[in-house]
Amino acid sequence: MKRARVAFGGAVHDAVAHAGGLRLADGRVVAEADAVWLPPFEVGTVIALGLNYADHLKELSKELTVTTQDEPLAFLKSPGALIGHRGQTRRPSDATFMHYECELAVVIGGTTRNVKRDQAMQHVMGYTVANDYAIRDYLENYYRPNLRVKNRDTCTVIGPWLVDAADVPDPHALELRTLVNGQITQRGNTRNLMNDIPALIEYLSSFMTLDRGDVILTGTPDGVVNVDVGDEVVTEIDGIGRLVNTIVGDAAFGRA
Amino acid sequence: MPTVYGTLLNFRDALDALGAAVHQPPYKAPPKAPVLYIKPRNTIAADGDAVIVPSGVDALEVGASLGLVIGRTACRVDEADALDVVSGYVVVNDVSVPHASYYRPSMRFKCRDGFCPIGAPVARAAVADPNALTLRIEVDGTEVRRASASDLVRPIGRLLADVTDFMTLHPGDVLMIGVPARAPQVRAGQRSRITIDGVGSLSNHYVAETAA
What we know:
The structure holds two protein chains of two kinds. Chain A is mainly beta. Chain A folds into two domains: 38 residues, FAH (SH3 type barrels, Roll), CATH 2.30.30; 215 residues, Fumarylacetoacetase-like, C-terminal domain (Fumarylacetoacetate hydrolase, domain 2, Alpha-Beta Complex). Chain A contains four helices and 19 strands. In chain A, strands 1, 2, 3, 4, 5, 6, 7, 8, 11, 12, 14 and 17 form a twelve-stranded mixed β-sheet that branches. Chain A has a five-stranded mixed β-sheet with strand order 9-19-18-15-16, with no helix packed on it. In chain A, strand 15 and strand 16 form a beta hairpin. The radius of gyration of chain A is 18 Å and the shape is globular. Chain B is mainly β. The model of chain B has no long low-confidence stretch (mean pLDDT 96). In chain B, a hairpin with a 3-residue loop joins strand 14 and strand 15. Chain B is built from two helices and 15 strands. The two termini of chain B are 29 Å apart. At the A-B interface, strand 7 of A face strand 2 of B.
């Protein structure tokens, strides 16, 4: 089952995928473009991984002071930074390098504490796509990546669907790609995750209790490029979803 | 879901403690914008709660802070009337496993279950000037540290203005103003009490993981 949360006709609805777009819980069928798409589940703690694909690590290594890795590079974001499918993301006018990051998002289904890797997948409720933008101009070397880079309003796009875990037989064999204005700029496959999903759940749950709606953004592969105002950015994972986002400028947000 | 944010190096003495290191690798330059971090929901605890000292760790840091409770949606607030978005104040104990580097500390140091006890809120009107509040930390009944919110790199209004320029704060969110330098360390068996006059006090005790 593919589930969504949308606003339509003056209310927020749970919906499921339908040949005509979406079917709301009340039976109405709504075209994709007629709904306002929200993050597809009630979002709890948002954990993101840095440098979890070997090729991306190489890509960014020039700016890394510390390259040795003895545990996953995990950091936190807040639910307020998230927007849904077909949303707009603001590119500040002073930014010179703003890039997308296509990531498989793993959604936790219930209380998860001290779970070993062989039991870890039982705690996954489902999967979705995330586009975790970064504005590298704002990177500072304190508590990297600092929230001004990674937790900006509108800069984490998630959806369109929450796909039930049972419908994803192997989450470690998914092709993912990003298209900017229709041109493929990033490709990868989740088989190349340095820390796979069970490893991440075992690691995180060893010191923090995860709960329903907590989400792990598993990192992005090689191929991040700058995006500009007006660009349409599509982050896509086979079998999970095709997440569309548009870059807008300061003026759309009432900023000079 | 409300989020609890911490602010790094906002007490002047905490930034000063880094000294010339701010110009050297890995930092390379002093911080320009506010540096924030998140205490996730699993860390939230209350007055009187036990904090678990993980096995393999000698002592924990007691990070005393004043938390600003956000009362209404705060986006691009002006410094001059920033306090309008604050509904009240809380005492926060931002517990950490001691770590020397601020470059990219592991989540293990700050995000363990129960690592963010928060006291009961008081209304904004109960505090005349939050930038003049004094924080006192006691360990086992003895005062070990005292700091003033007048010693901030970014006073509260400036902090709210700079943070909400890139990130909206939502009702129920808590923004800590920072933690003073030389945070006291506590071992299993000890107790801490953080007091902020006019806001309240927050007591916690520390137990070894194996005994929990």
